[in-house]
Amino acid sequence: MRLRSLTVIFISCLITFLSWVIIPPAIALTQIKLFDVSYKDCPPELAEGAVLSSGSTAANCFIVIGKAENSTNKTVYDADIFGRIYDANNDSVMQNRTRLGSITEVPPGISDFELRISVPANQPTPLKLKQFKAAGFSGQVRK
Question: Can you point out the beta strands (E) in the chain?
Answer without folding.
Answer: 29-41, 59-70, 76-86, 99-106, 109-120, 128-137
